[in-house]
Amino acid sequence: MTQPTLSILPMHGAIAAQRSLTLDVLVKITPPEIPAQLDRPPLNLGFVLDRSGSMGGAKIDYARQAVIYGIEQLLPSDRLSLTLFDTHVHTEIPSTLAIDKHRLIDQVRRIRPGSSTALHGGWVNGGMQVGQYLNPAHLNRVIVLSDGLANVGETNPDAIAQDVHGLMQRGITTTTLGVGADYDDALLEAMARSGDGNFFHITSPEQLPNIFETELQGLATTVGHSLSLTLSPQGTVVLSDVLNDLARTPEGSLKLPNLTLGDPLYVALRLQIPALDTRTEVLQVHLQWQAPDQSAPQRLSASLHLPVVSPEQMSDFPAHPEVQEQVALLMAARARQEAITFADQGDFDAASGVLRRYGAQMAAAAPASAAIAEESAALADLSVAFETEGPSTLARKRAKAEAYHLNRSRTSRHGQGPRNQTP
Question: Which end of the chain has fewer CB atoms surrounding its CB within 10 Å, N or C?
């Protein structure tokens, strides 16, 4: 399959002579498009399902539907397991090939809710099921669904996230799905971030089948994992900010989400460039990733050279609309984080105001596009939610999940389903 392309897009294609400036730059990683006939690596999935008492009724019903949907999409060469947890952890389906789907689906339909929430123990068991058949050439993932707080066994978020990171280093990633208003969003986000997976906030259990569809489609089109991006400003250029909220490797490189077909990744940077008088190389970037069908890491590099022109000529180099759009979306993620901070202080009016002001600013200054229009609507809707829900945690959870996806080059509504649903 064709390799991705790595490009660097500056906000302006030149710099004015003898004038220092702050320049926004976009690093774009473009994978190949999805082919008509997709030959994907086998999946090795561990479904981990909360069946505590609070999952009764519609939640457990839609959770069953979601897992059944997942099973129906698998190929006979794929593996799956199903771990259930409440006070205790139970392996409902030990890791098996997805061959006898009728039997597997019948087992899922018999799931009933129980009592407490041994989330960490359930995740550990799911990881063990995947690890029994770990193959670097396959796509190995644990998918955790919960509506509550970890209150049995290990409950420390830092300890759990550290365990998840350790499993990720072995090649098993973790995605988390939080349902309703009572789950621990800090824990589930930390698990997804440490596990190089996705984090979904689900306002209504009816969204679960669609969320599973999004997750499985993403896995099926994954062409690169363990991505890292090294940024090397040249000369006296200074990297003053990375607008994405991304973790770093021990060597200081940025850790990027998986690369999926037809789905570009963006990293926005802010450079401080000194006064120059000749064409200069200002930035080098180096991308490394692991392809499922390759044993050795894959690498790409790119560099940015900017011409120096007179101040009068700068009008010939207008702002790049794609850079403008991505910077605006990432600043919208930051506005959500600021709103969360205000909400945690009990100032819900301030939380709402931050979102309302940035939404208006973005609509006025950013280039017109479908992504900007959708984001403006999402900010307005979230602003109302903070204002009207007050101490309810739903708006906070939604803001956290939307910021998480924006920072990973996904839309703020990624996998979220329709707005204005209630659990």
Answer: N
Q: Which of 290, 312, 334 is the last residue of a domain?
A: 312
Partners of residue 306 on adjacent β-strands: 280
Residue 419: what pLDDT?
A: 42
Shared domain for 157 and 268, answered yes or no, is no
Q: Are strands 43-50 and 139-146 parallel, antiparallel or unpaired?
A: parallel
| Single residue among 220, 254, 284 that ends a domain in this structure | 220
Environment class of 36 (CB within 10 Å of its CB; exposed 0-12, middle 13-18, buried 19+): exposed
Question: Do 375 and 405 contact (CB within 8 A), yes or no?
Answer: no
Question: For residue 307, is pLDDT > 60?
Answer: yes
Question: Of the given ranges (181-190, 247-256, 405-414), which has the lowest mean pLDDT?
Answer: 405-414
The whole-angstrom separation of Cα 147 and Cα 115 is: 12
Q: What is the DSSP string of 71-135?
A: HHH--TT-EEEEEEESSSEEEEEEEEES--HHHHHHHHHT----S---HHHHHHHHHHHHHTT--
How, if at all, do strands 254-256 and 238-242 pair? unpaired
pLDDT at 420 over 60: no
197: phi then psi, degrees, rounded to nearest 5: -125, -160
Res. 177: pLDDT tops 80: yes
pTM above 0.90, yes or no: no
